[in-house]
Amino acid sequence: MAKLLYFAGLVDHLGRASEEVGLPAEVTTVEALLAWLRQRGGVWESAMHMSAVQVTVNKQFSVPTTPIKNQDEVAFVPIRPT
Length: 82
Prior knowledge:
24% of the residues lie in helices and 27% in strands.
């Protein structure tokens, strides 16, 4: 299970501070994770874009192509007001 952490305004916007999820096989990069989360619809569609959040993987800043796996900790910090 991957641990997803949400910070600042995302907590109120998304209604949670963290969650643990099993990543589908096709979710292997930060970009794919963001796309997968956007599929939840609603507020997720606007909040989960590289232009809206800074993403860290295991406490290291990431880029869209940063690899991820189920054992990782992925944090999302808004870079603009939500």
